[in-house]
């Protein structure tokens, strides 16, 4: 599979904001309280918030293309940008979303393998992520790629407290 990975810059802000909002809505809107969900989307995926995240030197966003088609975006965090204080040897995969039209075509497997290689190149010894425990398909996907559950943390959609599994891949 021939994929191209492009690190996002401020010039990608509009497209990144749009894809961030749309993929999150596609993935989770139907399982959440509409008012809580709208509040979360309006804050977490506002243009101002995405701009702040792009400008954070400890975070990186990437677009993934197949030919000329944008199929995915993801975000990684290191050091103090990580949602949990796991230190300088870990890398957090904060977001990874394949657009609806490209799901089920094995893009995710190729993308996660690329992220694992990037983790190695960055000198990190382990990769971790948080995944909503009700997102059974995502949990199974990560388990198939060697991730194991090691803890939980709370994630809020508006006022709705949800639980994420923390999953890690050691010795990347």
TrEMBL record:
Residues 3-172 form the N-acetyltransferase domain. It comes from the Bacteria. Transmembrane segments: none annotated. CDD domains: NAT_SF. One of its GO terms (molecular function) is acyltransferase activity, transferring groups other than amino-acyl groups. Gene3D superfamilies: 3.40.630.30. PANTHER family: L-AMINO ACID N-ACETYLTRANSFERASE, SPORE COAT POLYSACCHARIDE BIOSYNTHESIS PROTEIN SPSD. This is Spermidine/spermine N(1)-acetyltransferase. It comes from Aquaticitalea lipolytica. The gene is paiA.
């Amino acid at each position: 599979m021939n994929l191209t990975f492009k690190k996002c810059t401020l010039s990608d802000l509009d497209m990144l904001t749009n894809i961030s909002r749309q993929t999150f809505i596609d993935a989770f809107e139907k399982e959440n309280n509409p008012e809580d969900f709208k509040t979360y989307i309006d804050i977490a995926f506002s243009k101002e918030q995405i701009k702040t995240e792009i400008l954070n030197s400890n975070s990186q966003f990437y677009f993934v293309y197949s030919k000329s088609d944008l199929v995915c975006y993801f975000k990684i965090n290191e050091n103090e940008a990580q949602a949990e204080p796991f230190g300088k040897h870990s890398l957090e995969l904060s977001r990874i979303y394949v657009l609806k039209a490209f799901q089920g075509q094995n893009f995710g497997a190729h993308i996660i393998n690329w992220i694992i290689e990037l983790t190695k190149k960055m000198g990190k010894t382990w990769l971790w992520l948080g995944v909503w425990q009700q997102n059974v398909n995502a949990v199974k996907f990560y388990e198939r790629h060697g991730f194991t559950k090691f803890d939980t943390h709370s994630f809020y959609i508006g006022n709705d407290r949800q639980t994420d599994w923390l999953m890690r891949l050691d010795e990347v």
